[in-house]
Design a protein that fits this description.
The structure is a homodimer.
Chain A lengths: L1 E8 L16 H13 L7 E2 L8 E10 L9 H6 L6 E9 L11 E9 L13 E2 L6 H9 L3 E4 L14 E12 L2 E8 L6 H13 L8 H7 L14 E7 L8
Parallel strand pairs in A: 3-10, 5-6
Antiparallel strand pairs in A: 1-3, 1-4, 2-3, 5-9, 5-10, 7-8, 8-9
Chain lengths: 251, 251
Amino acid sequence: MNIAMTVSYDGTSYYGFQTQPYGNTVQDILEAGIRSLTGEEELRITGSGRTDAGVHAHGQVFNFHTASRIPVERWALALNSRLPDDIVVRDAARVPDDFHARRSAKRKTYRYTIDCGKFPDVFARHYRFHHPTPLDRAAMREALRHFVGEHDFTSFASKHSTQPSHVRTIYEAELVEEGSVIHLFITGNGFLYNMVRIIAGTVILVGEGKMRPDAIPDILAAKDRNMAGPTAMAHGLTLWRVQYEEYAPEL
Amino acid sequence: MNIAMTVSYDGTSYYGFQTQPYGNTVQDILEAGIRSLTGEEELRITGSGRTDAGVHAHGQVFNFHTASRIPVERWALALNSRLPDDIVVRDAARVPDDFHARRSAKRKTYRYTIDCGKFPDVFARHYRFHHPTPLDRAAMREALRHFVGEHDFTSFASKHSTQPSHVRTIYEAELVEEGSVIHLFITGNGFLYNMVRIIAGTVILVGEGKMRPDAIPDILAAKDRNMAGPTAMAHGLTLWRVQYEEYAPEL
């Protein structure tokens, strides 16, 4: 049986989602929990994609194949009882055998959150980048609009990216205000390594008045990482949602 | 000079606000930070009251007397630079010499937060008590109304309370809904040891249908801790606000 799950996690304490040589990843913890329920020692899960150290997920999706007879409606509760409190499975569903959390993904949405309060909100300090001076939100919105569409995002990818193509499509790039807090929601068909963090770092530069919004098309055209802004801090980033044709979680 | 400050803290890692023999309290951390700025090794702060281990504060207030010449408008930023990220000073103001954070307090408001989602919100897990089954909110509101007014709260105080009088006045007791989350806001002229947590634990019993709302007057009249519900978990509780005639923070 192929099972898909939606999981939230606080990435503060982990070296990212994907298994690493030194352990302490969200994937390791999930696999250990699932194996302890099914007894399948070789079981591996497939995530929709990696998230970096310190990055969070509201709705990361992964799948795995199992011979277990645990009814699918009992999976979330059973697995949560074996997980630490910073990882919470919120949905589980049976999916077609050929469903693959990464390859089947149609749209992914990331949220980057900036707290412009004079002092940080202590209860959200691990989930927001604190920027104690005001940002020009209209200029940031204008900058975001330039990312929408199909572009070569070489300027907005880590130099360590190993992807054969840097062309991606951004469907939506919105700025949502919540008092002194700014959320950047960016939805696309896929993202390069560090891409959302570099977009956020660049849009923050625009908000600070240090870059004009209409510089974005030139930066895209240059295909040069040095033209874009800095990579924004990991802890402000959350993988918000992954959308599929075959799987829609009940949340 | 007498200085009052408003501080937020995440109480998860501390043994409460007030100095304890084994250290690791919010007061210890604040005093160490202030002393490192003023050089006054004997300096002590006075909080509006204690908060227990694991209890948080949105707006705890404390004051201290100092000979320091640091301008009051620079205090918050200077002190925050010496504090861990789970304690944030949000306001500092000069107050009259006889201002005393505990004795001058006119009203205190606590918030108790219950997450009735099927699964806990991982990003608020340290600040909400997770109760995965629904609660009867109308019954809880009715129960809360019985606490308003002047009462002897012996039934709603820890048996370890050493206060000479258990009579307190509750000005407001409100239930505020935020989706699957329920906040209980309780404002009074003062609170006994564990009083808000026992009120919350009792109101949750009512919400579960295990107690009738109109049992509250009888419980109050009994002056017997055994008649009330359990003491709700500490991590759902936040000291929300303390109000004074002489000090109103600019937040």
